[in-house]
Amino acid sequence: MISMVNFKESLNNLPLIFTVIPLRDSKTGDPEHDNRIVKNIEARIMDISKTLSDFPGLTAINVPELVEENHEGKPRYNSIFTRKLARGIADQLGKEAIINKVVAHMESYDEFANWILETESQGIRNIVLVGGNTRHHRYTGPNVSEANLITKHLMKTKNLNDITIGNICLPERGGEARRMLYKTISGADFFTTQMLFEGDHITHLLKEYGELCSKAQVNPATVILSFAPLKSVADLNLLDFLGVDLPDETKDYILENEQVSKAYKRSIKNALDVLKAIMNDKIDNYPEINIGINVEQLTKSNMPYSIEMLKEFHIMTQKK
Known about the structure:
Blueprint: H1 7-10, E1 16-19, H2 31-52, E2 60-63, E3 67-69, E4 75-77, H3 82-93, E5 96-102, H4 109-121, E6 126-130, H5 144-157, E7 164-169, H6 176-185, E8 190-195, H7 200-216, E9 222-227, H8 235-242, H9 248-256, H10 263-285, E10 291-296, H11 303-318
Parallel strand pairs: 1-2, 1-10, 2-5, 5-6, 6-7, 7-8, 8-9, 9-10
Antiparallel strand pairs: 3-4
């Protein structure tokens, strides 16, 4: 078996992760349908693993959970076998798997605890715990800080292997630095940001987060910056659904000027420029915060462009 890269140790050294969109389907109880799902997962594992095999500097494979909410905040799950997909690709590449879990909809402590135990038993020891979509609903499950604490408690009481806990960071949300501090105190080892298309919000946030951690005498968590290429105006609809803000100036540069067919190239250049600005700002304003990079596969058709972006960031990380 290929030895795994230790993701937790990599958090101090510019980790590079790749986020794969999960399979959109659901179990039906019909054996023929469900077996077809498993075969589709196995085919996707081999296809993506082959595509990513050219990037030895890749640290981990991340798979999100896709959940929509109705007007009452009730969930509709749009992804399936996320752990199988992440574990399968990671095993093929000799990397570690990262799994996202929306904790807000958990019905009980036992449900959440069982999910943690099952995930750890499958050899997945890196998890990103995610809250609900809005503060206006009363969710059945724990908030993110509570979920962090429960995970830490289970690690201790159930003698689990060390689990690396991640949370989500929304740079444009008011009071985010304070939230990050509390989540760090409750157990977060790293944060993954919402997709970034400009650097002003995140640089201000990182500076404030670093200052709060210093005052609280807390070691800041690693912040993994997320980027994704855009290939057409149609991608804007998905960004809007995900709540990602694309500044007008950046949108015009990437999607509305010059040749549309070259939009993905301008998107990649914009991402590289944003990262460079953040890393330059880090030197003077938040040197104590470790940074990482996450390249996201926004849609299935965006995969070639995501690989192009990954290639550029991979070159950068290998030169560090």
